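seq as requested:
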Amino acid sequence: MAKRNPTAANIDWYLISIDRLKQIGLVVVILLLAGAGYWFWQQQKGNPKENAERAIGEARQALNSLAASSEYNAHHAEFNRAQQKLDEARTHFNGARYGEAQTAAVESATISNTARTGGGAVDNDAQFLAVEGDVKVQKGSSSEWRDADMRTPLFNGDWVKTGDRSSAELIFSSNGSLYTIGSNALLEIYATLNPGSTKKTNSVTVKVGPVEVATSKDTSTVRTPGTQVIVESDSTTQVGVNEQQATSVMATRGSASVAPEAGGAGVRLSSGEKVTATPVGAVSAVKKVTPSPALLSPADNQVFQLSPELNVQLLWNPPETGANGYILQVSRSRLFSTLEINARRTRTGASTKVTAEGAFYWRVASIGPDGEPGPFAAFRRFRVAGGGRVNTQDTKPPKLVMKKPFLIGSQFYIISGTTDPGATVFVNDEEADVDSKGGFQKLVSLDKLGQNTIVIKAVNAAGATNVQNQTVIVQE
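struct tokens:
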């Protein structure tokens, strides 16, 4: 009988085992490396304290670079704001609020770096689009109230207040949200920066007065005594706080949500719905409001010739649900800060005698069965021109004097200039408001990076036109 070779059998067994051990060992090494990498990420990259500490160091270095640069003398205000943000970051860090510390430090570094590289005007959080009457601004680092103007930049922590028969319109640079501030209002600008994405979220804190918020691509937040209102994207919502600190919220386009500031269940509003809230955040049930009427005549931008017998007939259709009355307002201001007419009507029309030339704006709201008014319809304009009849054979174009485009944020520009009173101005085929002296301005949003051409056209009553182009560069 042949003998088996035990050596060959043993070698064969060991060869198989070694291959398996190599495979197992490779898997173990991979697992160890993955575990070590995950531990490092958790302990280093994902460590909030170290992230905040690193951001504070970078903010300190950026502030020192600004102080040592040739731009320092021209950017004292930016230096002070960056220093204030750095102090906030240190305070948060000492209180173990590492997320807030990192956010404040990133904002500080951004302010310093932007000022040092000459782009300080782009870093603002909001900008006025219109200022009418007594409008004041208090900077977050000051206790002094100053007159606001179109070129006043607004930053996180700044305050805005309006007087009687005054109003303002501002835009947030990060996403184009529009805030229209009514008379006798007081609010604070509040913009926070996400340190991971460097994207800003915008909001205001309203202490008293009316504010209308119109969003575009992003949401916007309004804080009031006891409540928080989130206006969804592509929506318009009216928020008001009275002297007793009670809040009213009415959605006029899109949707919004209202919740107690202290937490708890909130409510969602669709267009045409309204709620009220107490100063401690108790939110009422949702209530339907009476829709606005449809404006009929005069047509938008209709021109009338001034004469001693001129009477303009204002007509509108009632809403489908019916109304117990109407509120008619006529103003020289598109923000309706001052009113030529503010009257309650039971009929669907009114006749008004006009004795002066210029542009007039009018709007109507319905009064519901409970006596409460609903939202105003979108305003219409009519113009009154002097000097007798229009010469339709006059082919002389209106004057068109343009100002330099004013940049807000990275993609928003204010296009402004002067034309003949009574002329109509279009900016990229969208009509701009022209005041009684011929001044006009229009906010445009440009999504295309690089060179953009903006076309401005002025048209008089005889149909003669004056067209000019302006070129701007949109940077990423």
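Residues 48-120 form one domain.
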